[in-house]
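User: Once you have settled down, look closely at the record that follows, taking as long as you need, and be ready to discuss the fold:
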Amino acid sequence: MPFINELPDIEEVRLSFGRRSLGQDAKNYVIYCRESDDRDERNKSVTDQVSLCEDVARKYNLNVIAIITERMSARSYGRPRFTNILKAMKGEEPLDVKDKKVQKLRPDGFIAWHPDRLARNWRDAGEIIEMLDDGTLTDMKFVMYSFHNDSSGKEHLAREFARAKGYSDHLQDNVMRGLIQAEQQGKATKQIPPAFETIKAKGSPDHLKIKASSLHGQWRKVYLWRLEGKTYEEIADLLIEEGYEDRRMRKGKYLPVEINAKYVGRHIMNPLHCGLYVTESGKEPRKADLTKIYPEVFGDEFPVVVSLEEFRQVNPELFSDTAGGWKPSSRRTDYPLAGKVLCAIFYKQKVNATMTANSPKGGSGKASPRFSCQRCKPSHSLHMEEIYNAVGEKLKKVKITPRMHKLMVVTEWERYKRDKEQMNTEGKRLLTLKANAKRDMTEAEETLNRMKYGSKPATKQEIKIQERVLTRYQEDVKNLNEKIAKLDEDGIQRYYDLDAFLELAKNAFRWWKKATPEQKRQMADILISNVVIEGNKVASVSLVEPFEECANNDETLDGRDGATRTRDLLLPKQAL
């Protein structure tokens, strides 16, 4: 039983029931001001919000430790600065401000213009109310709202958050309905590509329906050329050769548009060509499938230029599962393990967790190559040598059993044969293309000579176009020769790769310890899946299969000597 003198008086309990924090001010307040796209009369600009919040702080003599502003919608969870404030209140991380003294303080109160500045989504709203319940958040002051930290106050605050979310959702639905409805009727909010045109009502500038233009067929060719591997410059030249002309309204007149690589690149990425209308970039862009809408609204099919699959092949960077697939992957740095060292925090969240490789100078003035994570607060890094040592320890565990050794020989040999078969097929295809290109080039040369020196000389414009055709054929032949030469080199390299892989399988740890940085980089591409860094230490090293399985296998080798070269591995029948 507690001491009698410490028990509260029953009258005090009766008067304060459910109002434990009523009138209690927080020790450290943070002024939080936010501005987003859904502005109305209540939402002042950030500058005005700050000024009015400071007036509130002066009026009630509150201790403000930081002013934090953000230009981001609260409709979705994940505002960086607001999330940082909540974590600072819970003591999980310091407040993201420059003043180091303020970073050591723990905020426990908010000052804001209105509750809708803090949350328009249930996750943030629920977290705020939960923090009020457990005392992590002591008090909140608003310019345009009166809040008391008691059961009634929290109930009314929850209603205010619900009203803010409802307003945001309703506004978003109205905007998107208007955009999609306008596009269904052909009232495009942005200029439609030249492959389409619109039917207009008499006396009205509004578009009623999108239909195929006279350039529709030529844009179909543009996509086919792109799928064949032609550049934007080459496609622009081909369009000019075919007499392609696009005119746009400028200053009340229809003037011709310059056809160049920029023009092709700008329009080829428009998803309207495959029947998808995507709204203008914003905080929540949407898409509408006109191939489904048009049959219902107009009774006609939407005149697509290409299928969705063809559009994806030409523009893989516009889709999440193929982003980056069009351009060959380029290494941002030549450091070994670049792109494979991951931060544990972001790796667990299943987001991009790649750490940055750099060589800052240490206290002695010498370069200190490290992998750093700048997104973590505070940032953390680890010296590359420590990571290399951890990888070496992992490779030391790799034990190739006789069964696995034979399996790898057979598997790799079969893979090599399949690759070689594909290379031979590709070689035949390139030789056929080269023969056709040479024939076309010869015909183009003869045509050009007739145009220049024949009985009826052609105009300068026609000769110029024909010269461009001849140049393109010559470049095609040159490119095909380069591809054939590279294919031969790749075939030889693939054979060497087979031998190197089998050698690496047995002596991975030994080779890693004595490898140069460039050799380590090549080995990492073959062996290492990822290295996860937690704080200032290596949390885990994962190898690619079958090496990961061999590293976790307790079986031992079959007692063969430790020769640095594997013998008789080039043919499966010799190894088996």
